[in-house]
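Case study B.
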Amino acid sequence: MIERTGIPKAAEILARYPSRRSALMPLLYEVQERDGYVTEAGMEEVAEHIGLTPAEVLGVCSFYSMFKRTPQGKLLVSVCTSVSCMVNGGEELYAHLRERYADDPDVTVEEVECLAADDGAPVMQVNYEFHEKLTMDSAEQIVEDYKAGRKTPRSLSGTTVRGEGP
Amino acid sequence: MTATETRIVTKRLRDRPDDSWTLAAAKETGGYDALRQALTMDPMAIAEEVKASGLRGRGGAGFPTATKWSFLPAGVEPRYLVVNCDEAEPSTFKDRMLVERDPHQLIEGMAIASFALNVHHAFVYVRGEFALGAERLAAAVQEARADGLIGPNMCGSGFDFEITVHRGAGAYICGEETALLNSLEGFHGMPRIRPPFPAIAGLYAKPTVVNNVETISTLPAIITMGGEAYGAMGVERSRGSRIFSLSGNVNKPGNYELELGLTFRQLIDDFGGGLAGPGPVKFFIPGGASSQWLTDEHLDVVLDMDLVTQQYGVMLGSGAVMVYNQDACPVRVALRLAKFFAHESCGKCTPCREGTGWIEKVLYRIEYGEGRDTDLDLLLDVGDNISPGLNAPFSQTTICPLGPSAVSAIVSLNKFFRDDVLKHVKEGKCRAA
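Model:
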């Protein structure tokens, strides 16, 4: 059970909107940053900030695929297999990476829809950082570079490591 | 003669590839000059320039921008501008480029639009996966505010203007404007029944204009050039330039900004370096995944939003063009698109929620050798439940166009590749593989 540790940016986020409820998604991102996924404790805190029930927060949270409600690997590798990547080897790349990291608790490989980088097909994101024009080897090398600390990943929500951005 | 690009919206990011997103680069290339000019104009005169330019929405529907603005009821305050940067239409990748590489142009366009519409608080809904885009845009907003270009008393005009950057979280449906507004309000991103239209009751039930990133990014150029000069480019009712996202089996995929009125062949050959792999072009999808398809006999069709819809039943949509060579299997492409729509259907309307799932299942069994003789007719029947008549422009039994979009590939398969489908069924395997 993860303790409630507060959302330091809550007041600043709430102030961005004319309506408290609009802060729901940004606050969920904050919780995901803090806890590594959207925890129940986190959803309760968000509910209190906004004046909703935790069930209402869960209802919205579960609609969006970028809010993860189970613990994740440190690296989220999202491989596009949509129609431009498909004819450039995206499906094979996804199968390869999924197989390669099947037993690696640090790496979660997921199949995603078009990432709006078709001119770089096949593409993947690692914690929402784009990597384009991949081969099986180059994609694996990129993941290994992140694992070994030769590249610094974004956080799991894609916010920068410096914590900037919305 | 080889056609050349008409770089207006993409000028800065092409000229300054190393720092186009910074305030310094923006200022050195005339950034915010158009805003200062606009702030000396009567707000109505700005709207008149936009009207004279003939600018139409670049997000997909192609609705005239000035007309959309004119629907805001007079005297109802507050009112909002919401910029749609939830770009997720498969094969479309122009808005990501614009927000990552020229956020100041977007901010300047938003400020111009907001001054024209008397909006004091605008929002940008950025697709969640665009981490770099959201980061650069947020940084650019901070820079611009610190410099007095926006914020209280923007550019010393006495007009207060704030921008909030809001990240989505992975739902294609939020690119539909009313679903986007629900999401921005902290609800499920599900479309709303219209009327009321957003212009009357949009964000927080206030009058709201929702415009696409490219549409808004074009405004500084329209102010600088003058609406008439911008509108002098183009063909028929498709005025000016727009960005085409070219991908698939082409040698040089990419974003190309072209004056409207060139042909698909020019786009593919002169800019895309021609077809990659065995020719001729087997088929291409001319306006994002939601559009019906065309084949090599249509390559000389002109890039004119109305012509392609009226004569060929397709759309220029989001300006994405996906090209496939003879090795590509149309059933497999249709299946992949069906999987997308089934995954992204929000579940609100029964015909779409159920229909997209069935389309995926039936295409799956055809592709994997379990198809039945009647499957193509079954697909058309399911499609007809979502989009009665199966015509374009489509009718729909759903609140938003996602459902009918899922039918486009089925109709295209039936129109051009009936033999391919039947061969899959008969031989139990893919001919292209």
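Chain B has 20 helices and ten strands. The remaining cases will be described in the next quarterly update.
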